Queue: 3 jobs
Job 1
Amino acid sequence: MQDPNCLFCKIVKGEIPSNKVFENKDILAFSDVNPQAPVHILIIPKEHIPTIADISEAQAGLAGQLVLTAKQIAAEQGLESGFRLVFNCQKDAGQEVFHVHLHLLGGRKFSWPPG
Ligand code: 5GP
Ligand code: ZN
């Protein structure tokens, strides 16, 4: 199911252009329009799921695919020295787009704790 008003559903449908890095029948990965690191890629399910808090047991495989896709892209992007994966979930975490997306960030050092 898709939400016609959702930005990332529009990217999945090609109504909004994106710089695609990977695609299969369930998953799409594309460059973030406002990169926070030299490599900043968003990995999303094609299905509209608003937040990580909405992921069901039945979608465990899909959640795993997001992580495995991130790992694969990190290797392709040459991020051998490390990378960061982030799911911002709901408003206190700063989630702005309510369609699940995994941030893959790399190409620089990251501090901890995050802001
Ligand atoms: P959030 O804060 O929800 O975790 O992250 C949303 C991300 O989507 C942000 O990093 C933002 O730069 C990115 N973003 C917002 N609109 C667009 C867009 O139209 N295209 C792309 N490629 N990225 C977007
Ligand atoms: Zn959506």
Job 2
Amino acid sequence: MITEHVNRIPVHLDGKTIYDIVLEDSFDALAKEVSALGTEKKKICIIADSNVADLYLDEVTKILSGCCREVTSYVFPAGEENKNLKTVQGAYEHLILNHYDRKDLLVALGGGVTGDLCGFVAATYLRGVDFVQIPTTLLSQVDSGIGGKTGVDIDSYKNMVGAFHMPKLVYTNVSVLRTLPDDQFSGGMGEVIKHGLILDKEYFDWIQTNRAKILAKDADTLKLLIQGSDFIKREVVEIDPTEQNERATLNFGHTLGHAIEKLKNFTMLHGHSVGALAAMNICKERGLVKQDEIDAYKALMEYFFIPTSISGLNTEEVIAATKNDKKMEAGVIKFILLDRVGHAYIDRTVTKDEMERALATIFR
Ligand code: NAD
Ligand code: ZN
């Protein structure tokens, strides 16, 4: 892992830079970065949820007004339950009524819900318009804001409708994390720590060493934390932009995690779904990781208030729920395992018995 500050991480596809992830601790450079996309004659529509709009919409609108023809905004009620086609329809209507054309630009100002939704609107409005991500949650800054996976839910089926649509810029202002509720920060840390497990042991160790400064939201440390995760996510996205294979390793813990989230009616945070800890236990049984490595992971989870067990579910129902998962391929469950801490691989041989024993370690 790189421990000097990097302000710009270019993301490449087929050898070309397709967008930059910019890392700042304010919105000061936003006008310059957006202007560099050639926005002078464009209109910009900012899409934000109600919470983020209250906190940051005025500031961002003012900044963006200086670099384009006109700024409008579409605000929807916060919450995963609004990441749906009804909200998308509302956004389309706003764009149509305000005469947005194909050359105009959308800006997603918010967490993963806003980014996924705005990205989907951008992918489909007039068969595709450009968009910029301004991720404001830890999860979106390290994960959902990068990589161009967009989409919405259909009832309780998550991300069932979507498109790959790359942003033109990801502008990350780490200072907005100061207003993020603690549980959301904790949920984001759940994903961050997994990035280390999947791809970079050195990063995992760095988190352990710097945990106090991370928890205190020290700006410099947060920047290093986010850039470290961004490098990991970028590497996977560049190798496999449309999730044919390698990118699926980012889904470590998701097979059981999503089943648990679904059975809990999505009342728990994604980063709190404990699936990775269960998967670690499968790795341990197979002799791929050691108990003390699981203990170190668990200790780090506890430090960041990430639950290490769940109650109120039984094995059968969780295993049944994994069968509806998108990770099924021709009836075989695609499971992500670690062959060592810092390296994940796709495994198609995980048995029901292994899943049962793994779940037993996280049930209380
Ligand atoms: P979110 O967008 O709902 O944000 C969580 C909460 O924090 C919301 O209430 C929001 O209003 C609030 N908030 C956001 N920024 C804030 C700030 N700076 N200060 C105060 N409050 C703030 O949730 P999330 O965890 O960011 O994202 C979850 C979504 O991301 C899910 O829908 C998931 O499917 C998706 N996701 C997508 C990808 C991808 O690759 N596209 C990857 C992982 C997750
Ligand atoms: Zn995840």
Job 3
Amino acid sequence: MFYTVIGTQWGDEGKGKIVDWLSFKAEAVVRFQGGNNAGHTLKIKNKIFKLNLLPSGIIRGKKCIIGNGVVLDPWALQEEILKLKKQGIKINSKNLQIAENICLILPLHKILDSINESNRGKESLGTTKKGIGPAYEDKIGRRSIRLCDLSNKKILKRKLDNLISFHSLRLKKSKMNINAKKILRDLISIYKTLKKFSYPVWITINKLGKKNKLILFEGAQGSLLDIDFGTYPYVTSSNTSSGQIFSGTGFGLKQNNKVFGITKAYTTRVGAGPFPTELNNKIGDYLGKKGKEFGTVTLRKRRCGWFDANLVKQSVLISGVENIVLTKLDVLDELDELKICIGYRINGKKFDYLPFGENLQLKAKPIYKKIQGWKKSTYGLTKWSDLPAAAKNYIKIIEEIIGVDIAIISTGPERSQTIDRKKILGNL
Ligand code: GDP
Ligand code: IMO
Ligand code: MG
């Protein structure tokens, strides 16, 4: 059996909290795309854990796997492991495996990310500058250094020289110096720590799949940041939709799957790009403040807006989402009236999906359905029956529009502040 958790919006939907919650009965938790551009915050009994590369199951000591679809910054991973160990989390070769064919992010990728962004001028994407895009470019360009390459100094040196030489023109033009010797030294030294985690993880995952153990695939980012289906070019450089779990890990089984679409009760976005329901007003500011909408990775202020059911409906179809997990419902508690976007008007024409053209996306005017607020606290509620009638109504209207059940509702950042409406954990 396997569960997949994906974000249905522009990221930061609360995936980390839900993966931690669902991982209670999981045998393994697996990342399949993205890199340390992800920032997942978990709150457990007042302790805060921030994860970028490590799957959120690490907090419960579950077997965690970083699949080949991820791009790995070895320096960043080393730091993250140290930070978590200081917080008392056990990380060893029994509970962490990293695909030996994973492609690496090197310091030059971060530099190239910054150069790309500044070259775009006013049209910069607002990336996290973690080198994600350039690292994936090198992967597809067949120039990457992979984790397994670190075991052989000769091969590593040849590959590193080739890579630096490939990028040398652009790096020189920007007067950025790359210290190849230091990178080589660092990589060899870091490999001493990382070697024990390096493994052909596809073997582990397929073995677990055969045993019918619960495997939890943890998506990073969100559907609208998908390189194919997102608001291109204002997207990340990986496929964030559920289809990526197979090529991103080598998992070959396709039955007994359930996809959970993690969905914030309103919408946020960090970085540039179209956002039809964005609120540049008091309500937007209110959502940002109450929802503490600041990026985990870059600490940037997240843009906030009304719930866009049109977009979520799209993500549900693309990722085969069977159950929605609605998060941060409590953030809406004090609003008099709420709005749900049910379609767009673009150049006088009605759309029940977001067309791909950038010019059309920028012109999309939301068509809203108004709903009464509940003006009562839902913070920390754990029972469906305790929700105010108007909050239940908001949830039911969203379900009707997007056509799938909202199975789980999150009412606060803590693991325990969760309503298991359809007994998902209960029935596992
Ligand atoms: P992710 O990237 O999808 O894992 O989401 P982030 O961790 O970047 O952002 C979600 C933030 O909201 C985190 O700080 C969580 O602790 C917090 N959070 C998650 N669920 C809830 C909730 O239901 N209510 C509130 N108030 N905060 C939540
Ligand atoms: P989690 O997993 C929100 C955004 C960046 C930028 C765009 C491209 O925490 O939900 P990149 O560095 O990936 O090339 O940046 O994607 N972005 C995210 N936004 N949550 C994330 O991850 C994100 N990861 C990347 O802000 O707009
Ligand atoms: Mg995040």
